[in-house]
Automatic annotation (TrEMBL):
Region annotated Disordered, chain positions: 1-20
Name the record gives this protein: ABC transporter ATP-binding protein
Membrane topology type: Multi-pass membrane protein
Keyword terms: ATP-binding, Membrane, Nucleotide-binding, Transmembrane, Transmembrane helix
Primary location: membrane
SMART domains: AAA
Residue stretches making up the ABC transmembrane type-1 domain: 71-358
Originating species: Luedemannella flava
Biased composition (Low complexity): 1-15
Subcellular location(s) per record: Cell membrane
Gene Ontology molecular function: any one: ATP binding
Length: 644
């Protein structure tokens, strides 16, 4: 597909129904696709210039994965090729002897040495085939392991902001597809090498018999080869242009078939809406696939027709050479066998060129992703060891999310002393969670710095800093693990201890609730597995709070830890937080302002700026934003209790 075609297809999808533009904005052409498309449009011949590089890369991966098997593959492939040449030359000798004059027994006897050679060559070739299969089978899982592990090593190491970039998500989607391609590429290159060696073997044999036969061989093989390569190119271009569509389809699959969305889908009667979305994306996809099928069929049919005509011409040429006495009958017969062998090898070669090229492009996506992901890697880790927390200072810190006009945090400065309980309050979107993420070292400020006992966070060893901080996030993830493990992953560096797990659960008011589960602490918290259970929102929140307590960190950051808790549980949780006062530091983010009254210091954020700071009493006296919010919330309670 050309660039124009790709653009047309994506606009077709969105303009077919103007509503689609806003509902499915991802269907628009992405800026980053144009560069890749340009590469794909480089032309069919580019395949041949790229193949050696791809083969080299595949071999390097294979070598790293398993040297012995890679060696077996190389030796077996080459030996099988040499045996093919031998086999063909031996066949010709057998035919020469059989077509010679004299009684049949004498002719058979004369052909015996060549026949023995032929049998030996065939046996060695078959043996090499078995060795090749054995080596390849053992190589595949090892190569796959290497490729996939490297991908996950990268995706788990990149900075958090990588996941804010849509290009990164698309890039990653293609890279995941690329991990399968690594294995396929190694296999494809081996098979391709086997096919090429087979073709070379036939070529050598044919040239030895009669150089003119080489022309015949080329005529019979080139058209099909060209068509096959071109078809592969067409398929890859279509695949490339469809990355955004596939991501959208994947999202729709999950929205329509997963448990997490099942209830809301029904409540809001989203069935028809989602099916309509699916029809639109699939409609576009089907049109594109049908168009591709038409173009691929045309290409391969043209190749097959020209190839057929050329093969007929070869047989005519052979007939003419025979009639003219240019070649003996034995050579002509060997040539027919050779052409058939060449066509078999060519079928392998063209299929493998197609596959290797396609896999090579996917592999390029994989390696390209690895390179581009380098831009998202955290800066070199600091080496200083953080001591026990004395003072945490946020100094003139700003952060803007990509594609946002206003900063999420704007020149924020504050100090938290060890043993304090401080609160971040403010309206939705005021920047509280962003500030917490910066303090936890999950994001790096664009400007300003955060210091731990006077050392900038980036100068400190990040693992050692994180070991001293526990974060209970507002957007927690429901890990599909047992209740005990869900808590124990709060400190993965030590083996889980049941007593410690229970103590953390008790502080988070989760113990009794967990004991009541069918298998207690061993209950699997995922309904999609056998024996799995799900929890209510408040119960999940208790588990995540227990995870935060499990680490017993010097600095505990709790972002909306009680939004789903019942009043009794909420009270108990905040009592546990107050118990930390004086011995450990807590940063609390909550909209329930009654719970921050006891905080040593309350920081009020508004539109990313720190607008007020002080104790509850100071802020109430100041009569500013905090006092307004507090009075508003308090009025809600007093209205209900006020009998008037
Ligand atoms: N990953 C992100 N990409 C782009 N913008 C973001 C991202 N996360 C947050 N924002 C924006 O940054 C601003 C601050 O968000 P933040 O989550 O820090 O607010 P908050 O004070 O914690 O809000 P809430 O009380 O609703 O939890 C908001 O305008 C939000 O839309």
């Amino acid at each position: 597909m050309t660039t124009t075609e790709a653009t047309t297809t994506s606009t077709q999808t969105t303009t077919a129904d103007p509503a689609g533009e806003s509902v499915l904005p991802e269907l628009r052409s992405m800026w980053w696709e144009s560069g890749l498309r340009a590469r794909a449009a480089a032309g069919v011949l580019a395949v041949f210039t790229e193949l050696p590089r791809l083969a080299w890369q595949a071999m390097r991966i294979s070598w790293r994965a398993d040297r012995t098997r890679t060696l077996i593959v190389i030796v077996a492939t080459l030996t099988a090729g040499v045996m093919s040449t031998f086999g063909l030359l031996a066949t010709q000798r057998v035919l020469v002897e059989l077509f010679a004059g004299g009684p049949t027994p004498d002719r058979v006897r004369a052909a015996l040495p060549a026949l023995t050679l032929l049998a030996a060559a065939t046996a060695v070739r078959a043996g090499m085939g078995i060795a090749l299969g054995y080596a390849q089978n053992g190589l595949n899982p090892r190569v796959n392991l290497q490729a996939e592990r490297r991908l996950f090593e990268t995706t788990t190491a990149v900075r958090l902001d990588a996941f804010d970039a849509d290009a990164f998500a698309d890039d990653m989607e293609r890279a995941s597809r690329g991990t399968d391609a690594v294995m396929s590429l190694v296999q494809g290159v081996t098979n391709l090498a086997a096919g090429v060696v087979g073709l070379l073997a036939v070529t050598v044999a044919v040239v030895v018999i009669h150089p003119l036969l080489l022309v015949a061989l080329l005529m019979a093989t080139v058209p099909n080869g060209w068509a096959s390569v071109k078809a592969g190119h067409q398929r890859y271009q279509t695949y490339l242009a469809g990355s955004v569509r596939r991501r959208r389809l994947w999202i729709l699959h999950r929205l329509m078939a997963e448990r997490a969305t099942a209830a809301e889908l029904r409540t809001y009667r989203l069935r028809d809406f989602l099916l309509d979305q699916y029809d639109r994306v699939m409609g576009a996809e089907t049109r594109i696939q049908l168009d591709l099928a038409r173009r691929v069929t045309t290409t391969t049919s043209v190749g097959a027709i020209i190839g057929g005509i050329a093969t007929t011409a070869v047989y005519v040429l052979l007939g003419l050479l025979l009639l003219d006495g240019q070649i003996p009958l034995s050579a002509a017969a060997t040539c027919v066998i050779a052409v058939q062998a060449a066509q078999r090898s060519l079928a392998v070669v063209t299929f493998q060129i197609d596959r290797t090229y396609t896999d090579g492009q996917h592999f390029g996506d994989y390696t390209g992703f690895m390179t581009r992901a380098g831009d998202y890697m955290p800066p070199p880790a600091g080496t200083h060891t953080p001591g026990p927390l004395r003072e945490l200072a946020v100094d003139q810190v700003s952060l803007s999310y990509p594609d946002r006009d206003t900063p999420a945090l704007d020149q924020v400065s504050l100090v938290v002393n060890a043993g304090q309980t401080v609160a971040f309050v403010g309206e939705n979107g005021s920047g509280k969670s962003t500030l917490a993420a910066l303090i936890a070292g999950l994001r790096t400020p664009d400007d300003g710095k955060i210091t731990w006992n006077g050392h900038t966070l980036t100068d400190l060893n990040p693992d050692l800093v994180r070991a001293r901080i526990a974060v209970v996030s507002q957007d927690y993830f429901k890990w599909p693990l047992s209740a005990a493990t869900n808590i124990a992953i709060g400190d993965i560096t030590t083996p889980p201890e049941q007593e410690r797990i229970q103590a953390a659960a008790t502080r988070a008011v989760a113990h009794d609730m967990i004991e009541d589960l069918p298998h207690g602490y061993d209950t699997l918290l995922d309904r999609t597995f056998a024996d799995g259970q799900d929890l209510s929102g408040g119960q999940w929140q208790r588990i995540t709070a227990a995870r935060g307590f499990y680490r017993d960190a010097e600095l505990l950051i709790m972002d909306e830890p009680s939004s789903a808790l019942d009043p009794r549980a909420e009270d108990a949780l905040f009592q546990a937080i107050r118990d930390r006062h004086g011995t450990a530091t807590t940063i609390l983010i909550t909209h329930r302002l009654a719970n921050v009254r006891h905080a040593d210091r309350i920081f009020v954020l508004h539109d990313g700026a720190l607008v007020e700071a002080g104790t509850h009493d100071e802020l109430m006296d100041a009569g500013g934003r905090y006092a307004d919010l507090f009075a508003l919330q308090a009025a809600g309670y007093s209205d209900r209790t006020d009998p008037s």
